[in-house]
Fold each of these.
Amino acid sequence: MSTLASPTTRRSVSGLLMFVAAAVATALIGVLAVTDTAEQYKSLDQPSWAPPSWLFGPVWTVLYALIAISGWLVWRRTGWSAELVPFAVQLVLNAVWTPLFFGFGLRGLALIDIALLWLAIAWTVVRFRGRSGVAVWLLVPYWLWTTFAAALNAAVWSLNRG
């Protein structure tokens, strides 16, 4: 009996690592593109219901883990398939938001981006639904947080125009 993992197990683990790497890359684009997000966030006029800046890091860490696992679960069933196109689109839209909102101060354009992100998550959910119910449910917290973040983006943009 061999102590080495089977080719199927190695492929599965390699796939999971690819999805984790994609989620980490998405997060790093925001982190590396803009270094003073916490300070900028604190300096903006915000609605009374805005969360403290320290909350975003832990929330996004959990969400990126769920996103990666969700994509991996579908990939395990379909391989590189059309089901993963909306998944890739939502990662790109997610990565673009922080540079738009904080890096360039384009809060209105960031609002358009997050609205498109929300739609891309919906598209991902629809495409994943027939492949893995667990993958769909793993995206629900992300979709809900994106809904909240879009409302916060709209409020901050409105309060800080002009």
Amino acid sequence: MKLTTRSRYGTRMLLDLAQNGGGGPVRVSEIANRQGISVKYLEKLSRILKKAGLIRSMRGSKGGHLLAKPPADISMGEIVRALEGDLNLVTCWTERTSCPRLKTCATSKLWQEVSKALLERLDSMSLDELLKSSALDGTSGACEPGKPL
């Protein structure tokens, strides 16, 4: 499984909001400058994140985006699901009709267990924890532009 730029950049956007949103709404252009991500792409991600209830927007001259809830209440699983959709590694056991070999497949249970472990790990970590761990190791909580998160 490979996460798309939606998850990697969306997480960076949310981390940026958590770091810089204490003084009020943060403009997409400011996030774009700090994170090295295009404004257009962040605007697209902001619509998805807003629909998922992870951010809220304010219009006007002092407008921008804010987290919709505290970073401790936003799980990494919630972020990735909002941006990626279904996170199961294979669909054979979620869509029972997709594989005629499901009943005899030796690997189906393995993929199910790996998917479950991935989801449990993502659900167990909050945006706040990620933010704190990046502060402890001296990073900004986001990778360099163009590099995987």
Amino acid sequence: MSVAIVEEVARKLGGQSVLGYVVRSQADLAMAVRNRLPLSALRGLSQAGMSEQEIEKFVIPQRTRRHRADRQQPLTVDESDRAVRLLRIQSLAEQTFGDRDKANTWLRRPLLELGGEAPLAVAQTEAGARVIETILGKIAWGAAA
């Protein structure tokens, strides 16, 4: 993952004001995940174009989110990891297509290469996210994908 993507993901999560420090590397981003992201970092997913339903399905159920908010608890490590993974894929797609709307449309379009599944759904797992990164890499280099 490039430094530009790491910095973009950190920016979308709310940057230093939300994370508590400047994220400059993959190691910094990994530490933010291990330290558990604050719930306010989820705003970045919404601002990046993720719907509330997608956040609920891919990161944290709405009921759990409300429960955490009432108790002022952060996301778990797993939820933080899922949020970062989705923003990483979304940011990479945005970089590849040069446009947020095109990226978000592509992420939701079923692809034959993925057995008719949408990239966003496949990216729920780290292994799936790597597949999507590979496809985006092929698109960036001009190969048919």
Amino acid sequence: MRIARAVVGGEPQHVRVDADALVPIEDPYVALAAGRDPADLGTPIAATDRVLLPPAVPTVLVGIAQNRGASDHPSPVQAWLKSPRTVVAHGEPVRVRRDAGRLVVEAEIAVVIGRDTGDPTAPVVTEANAHEFMLGVTAVNDISYPDRAVLDPRNFESKGGEGSTPLGPWIDTDASIDDLELALELDGERVRDTSAQAMPVPVREAIAYVARWVRLGPGDVIMAGAPLSNHEASAGQTAVVVVGAMRLETPLR
């Protein structure tokens, strides 16, 4: 199922994407907790009438650094927090900072947590069962200003700009986190082409790691990192992140 959020009757509403229409559905997190698919609630909305929102509203937004080396002593998983206020929707223009140096767009797989991961001091999430705690996956563009990282190793400035986390357009509840296409396009040209299998830190390992340190709940998001899927960009370009069948478009202004 493809789950999105849209403005319906002036209010945010979960919907499922069905061809060229959106069908209002019940809260998918409540349905997941009950062990079933979310039920339809209303009449399909024509594509011309829809206004898509970010598909998740995270309280916790975590990034994974895909910098594990190929040496005999690989680096441990490294995670960092990003402000949920940086999340914007598919197609929403992002204003590029002119005072932060180079701009880099990063195509990443984003995991949307579906249920409480429990007390981190008594962990229940493992690599083997990580998929059971997911609602699904979506696409994310982790917009960065790497020149700021020299003075800011915690990514507050380099990744915390307004609109620096485009997310969407929907959540795919059926996609595999083990072998998922990941690509980046700039102005229609494919500049990066990889997959989840190329990640030095597998998505399952990232989920289990984060859950051992931070309690996650419905709607929280883990950005799985950019394994050779980032590229410099500039204002005036349009970046497209490809995750499986999803295409997340971000006009840079």
